[in-house]
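Minutes, project check-in
Item: structure for the 403-residue chain
Input as provided by the requester:
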Amino acid sequence: MSEEKPPLVTETSDVARVLFVDNEPNALSEIKGQLGPEYNLIIAKEGAEAIALAETHNDIAVIVCQMHLADMNGASLLAEYEKRFPDTVRIMLTGSSTQDELVSLINDGKVFRCLSKPCPEDDLRRAVQDAVQHYEVTTTDKTLLNDTLTGSVRMLVEILSLSVPESFSRASRMRQWVKPLEKFLDLPNRSEIEIAATLSPIGLVAIPHEVLEKELSGEGALSYTEQEMLYRAPESGRNMLAHLPKLKNVSELVYLQDRGFNGGGFPMDGPVGEDIPFGARVLKVLKDLAAYCPDNEPTIEAIGKLEIRQNIYDPNILKAVGRVWGFDDSGTSKRKKREGKRISVIVHTLMPGDLLLSPITFEHGKLLLSPGIRVSEAQIERLKNLQTLEPITEPIQIKRGGD
């Protein structure tokens, strides 16, 4: 019995990778002869093989597929590609489909171009060339958009770290806790949830500093107007983020971060239960957990406080929190923590990521940063600038490294 041959891959550096799916050996030989020197060719004979190849080659620019395959029809394969590998440009080769079928494929966005079979070499070459060009333009635009998104998020994070450092520290803990949940929860859009966690306090930037200080210190009762400002902060956050590229979904998670699973919380007319976006349900649990837990690792006491009010949380997310940060009978966390190193530093030796164990104040007593905050590069730069104006109390107790 002869061994099954691996998929044919013609490697050529710095040119586009093109996948042909056709179960006719002669057709594949012709394609290899026609286009082999110009492209990195991958050849598959079945739909399942084509999907497997896309999972191992994440840079396939174009897929050219015939309509009738042994294990599925080409339309189904290209629909699967559209869903799972949307950057790959899709071309259909067909000899028997009706015009209505072809028009439907094109109008539904499943294919870039349909070609009749047999296809003249010049037509095939031109179609592949156009598809590769389309791939390069769209992926370049996407890279630029992603770079813009990264820069926008970084800028917003720096604004948060300077404007509302205590809330930013809480949001940073929330972000850290998203990834461990993936062990017990399906998080298909984890990066969106992490960005939303990081930016969850962005609406507080619109609130007067005096109101934030009063709320944080607990000194004096908040007026109705001040309470309403804080209550509606997620709405301000959504409005700030909604117009930034690729942050529309994130803005919706930020907007619904305080919505309880039982229908309580902001906004009063918001969705209930599983109608709340899953990412927003994750934020609700992690935000309250971070409020109860100033440390980088959830405590048994903090998780216990959530369980007392368990009706306001998604039960599956709350259960996952308990499983990730589970505790044994003695109350000891089952997760291993990296302890880090407790040291004393001065302002000029602070490093991004250092965890404050003591407050940072001017020598006359005014608070600059509270304990429990992991300092950012922007915060350190601000402290250095402030120190040129007034003395800051030193040394500062921090923990460097660890969880």
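Outcome recorded: The radius of gyration is 28 Å.
No further action items on this chain.
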